[in-house]
């Protein structure tokens, strides 16, 4: 049995003060829900403060990005060891980073490897664009992104990771994938690929999340799917009530 996980990607939202307020609202609502894991990924600037607030609670902390070098003259970048003191998880390969910051399958792979070396747990994002979806290339794209990102990753490494399937056309659009469609992609092009790459036993242990317009009204249908183990939530993770309701739907 895989334990469900509901993770929030806050993206570029919330000042430190605003982040504190949101976490104060989340803590009492999530604390009783022991059947579901929760991860929140605030912006870098709020991580130190929020790390102090969630210590000892059920909320785990993640970052939204990381660079692959350990240290050096890389103005503006944040290294895996810097994050490892503050967070447990790190989102890698989000489609917004691929689209706006030129991240490639190769740089995503370097980030995954560097994060694992530092003891961070990557939340690897994969997903096709609308154009790729309409051209019937979903399977091909998701498989390519997955295999490239995991090149050189050990069984021990993958066992600490989560994968998020986020079709780009469903992110922030209000047009979520169908639960059955998302489950099919996750099963055929992620879980079965993991079984081929590692083993069926390993593949059956990895948590795979769906992301893209998950809201309190539709969350449950996704969680009812056999291969969907939770959600990576964007917009709805910025409202405490919505994030708590989505977490309750995963029980
Ligand atoms: P939305 O939930 O706002 O569609 O964003 C999903 C996402 O990109 C999470 O990483």
Textual characterization of the structure:
By secondary structure, the protein is α/β, with parallel strands linked by helices. It has 12 helices and 8 strands. The longest helix is centred in the last third of the chain and has 19 residues, at 179-197. The chain is globular and about 45 Å long. The two termini are 13 Å apart. Bound molecules: 1,3-dihydroxyacetonephosphate (13P). 1,3-dihydroxyacetonephosphate is lined by residues 9, 94, 166, 171-172, 211-214, 232-236.
| Distinct helical segment count | 12
The number of domains is: 1
Strand order of the largest sheet: 1-2-3-4-5-6-7-8
| Broad CATH class | Alpha Beta
The low-pLDDT segments are none
Using only CA atoms, what is the Rg? 17 Å
Number of strands: 8
What is the topological layout?
Elements lengths: L3 E6 L6 H16 L4 E6 L2 H11 L4 E5 L16 H5 L4 E4 L2 H6 L4 H13 L3 E6 L3 H5 L3 H12 L5 H4 L3 E4 L13 H19 L2 H6 L1 E5 L7 H5 L6 E4 L6 H10 L2
Parallel strand pairs: 1-2, 1-8, 2-3, 3-4, 4-5, 5-6, 6-7, 7-8
Helix pairs in contact: 1-2, 1-12, 5-7, 7-9
1,3-dihydroxyacetonephosphate (13P) binds next to strand 8.
List keywords for this structure.
251 residues; alpha/beta; TIM Barrel; eight-stranded parallel beta barrel; 12 helices; 45% helix; binds 1,3-dihydroxyacetonephosphate
Concise description?
The chain is of the alpha/beta class. Helices cover 45% and strands 16% of the residues.
